[in-house]
């Protein structure tokens, strides 16, 4: 067991990292709006954050298929052009000695017919919509419950996307099972009212996450597969009656069947999209204690860097930073040397060009 601490080495898959400061998956919406191909700006953005090497970057959530969501500017991993675009990104990261995992995304009900092929109705576990309007100001739509024989097609889309990711040079893939997207819509009790083998009991609601994990592991290897989960999250109306039992079962199954996954990534219950630090009576200790292997925790640490250092020393976790990694391309070395951080500008988080994307200065430049 390696020693604990943010600047202690750790092995992820077949890679030895020099530190445990991780680039969190962050939607930035700068890919081509029609083709969803990443471009030279992505190459620069991820390359900058590869720093002096030895780190782990996780990409922004990336559509596994044309049906997976297609927010304007989100990247994809289903077409040849997308794979070619990503190859330049992975090369830039590897040239600087870091590694990068691709986050595999299907948003389920969190999209609109207008964005989907042939104006298809969004799909989910059950025909239950998110309340109100989405972050684009559009009214959320009622999705269609996936037919049981469509579930295998969905799993196949994850497999193909994972293979495409490996072809594009990624060191692994992270299955996005968090934050109210399709896998999470199957897990949580309030969004899954199915009466087949994918609904009802905890075992049934966890089945899709486990089947996708199994299929991706078989396709690309266990050391190249990871998963992200968010127990206790209420983002996009998620609610589960028994979060400790639900995700406890899921993590136990992952531990029993896939203990060699590259990592397990969990979102802190206190996480919010607001600028102020959030709080929660819950934490992830129960799941970390079951998992015992590389564990990434994300959410709220940028507002509390001292707390992050202490947390990593206490638990051995890797810590994913979002907002402050956006604003500080050299975040790992700034944290290690206790240098001041650039402030972030929320107005340039989503969409647009280089401003707020690739123009944040290194410490020496500031
Ligand atoms: C977003 O696009 O706002 C987004 C994407 C993925 C997440 C959370 C939020 O996990």
Describe the structure.
Keywords: Oxidoreductase. One of its GO terms (cellular component) is cytosol. This is NADH:flavin oxidoreductase/NADH oxidase N-terminal domain-containing protein. This protein has helices spanning about 40-50, 80-95, 150-165, 180-185, 200-220, 245-255, 285-290, 305-315, 325, 330-335, and strands at about 10, 15, 20-25, 55-65, 100-105, 125, 145, 170-175, 225-230, 265, 295-300, 320. By secondary structure, it is an alpha/beta fold. It has a single domain, classed as TIM Barrel, CATH 3.20.20.70. Strands 3-4-5-8-9-10-11-12 form an eight-stranded parallel barrel. It has a two-stranded antiparallel sheet with strand order 1-2. Strands 6-7 form a two-stranded parallel sheet. The chain is about 30% helix and about 15% strand. It is built from ten helices and twelve strands. The protein is globular and about 55 Å long. The longest helix is centred in the middle third of the chain and has 20 residues, at about 150-165. Helix 3 (about 150-165) runs parallel beside helix 5 and helix 5 (about 200-220) packs parallel to helix 6. The structure holds P-hydroxybenzoic acid. P-hydroxybenzoic acid binds near residues 61 and 179.
């Amino acid at each position: 067991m390696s020693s604990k601490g943010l600047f202690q080495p750790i092995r992820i898959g077949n890679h030895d990292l020099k530190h445990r400061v991780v680039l969190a998956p962050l939607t930035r919406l700068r890919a081509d709006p029609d083709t969803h191909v990443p471009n030279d700006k992505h190459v620069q953005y991820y390359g900058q954050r590869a720093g002096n090497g030895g780190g782990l970057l996780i990409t922004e959530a990336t559509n596994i298929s044309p049906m997976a969501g297609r927010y304007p500017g989100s990247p994809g991993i289903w077409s040849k052009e997308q794979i070619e675009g990503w190859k330049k990104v992975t090369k830039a990261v590897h040239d600087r000695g870091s590694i990068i995992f691709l986050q595999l995304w299907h948003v389920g009900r969190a999209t609109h017919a207008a964005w989907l092929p042939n104006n298809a109705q969004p799909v989910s576990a059950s025909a239950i919509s998110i309340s109100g309007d989405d972050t684009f100001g559009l009214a959320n739509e009622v999705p269609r419950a996936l037919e049981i024989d469509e579930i295998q097609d969905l799993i196949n889309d994850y497999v193909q996307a994972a293979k495409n990711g490996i072809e594009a040079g990624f060191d692994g893939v992270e299955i996005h099972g968090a934050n109210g997207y399709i896998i999470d819509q199957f897990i949580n009790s309030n969004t899954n009212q199915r009466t087949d083998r994918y609904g009802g009991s905890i075992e049934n609601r966890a089945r899709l996450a486990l089947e996708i994990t199994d299929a991706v592991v078989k396709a690309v290897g266990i050391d190249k597969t990871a998963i992200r989960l968010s127990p206790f999250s209420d983002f996009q109306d998620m609610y589960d009656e028994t979060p400790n039992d639900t995700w406890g079962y899921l993590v136990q199954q992952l531990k029993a069947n896939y203990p060699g996954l590259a990592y397990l990534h969990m979102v802190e219950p206190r996480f919010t999209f607001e600028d102020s630090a959030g709080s929660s009576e819950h934490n992830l200790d129960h799941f970390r204690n079951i998992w015992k292997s590389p564990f990434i925790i994300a959410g709220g640490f940028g507002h509390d860097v001292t707390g992050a250092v202490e947390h990593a020393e206490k638990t051995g976790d890797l810590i994913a930073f979002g907002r402050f990694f956006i604003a500080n391309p050299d975040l790992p070395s700034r944290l290690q040397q206790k240098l001041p951080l650039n402030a972030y500008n929320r107005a340039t988080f989503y969409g647009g060009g280089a401003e707020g994307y690739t123009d944040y200065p290194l410490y020496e430049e500031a």
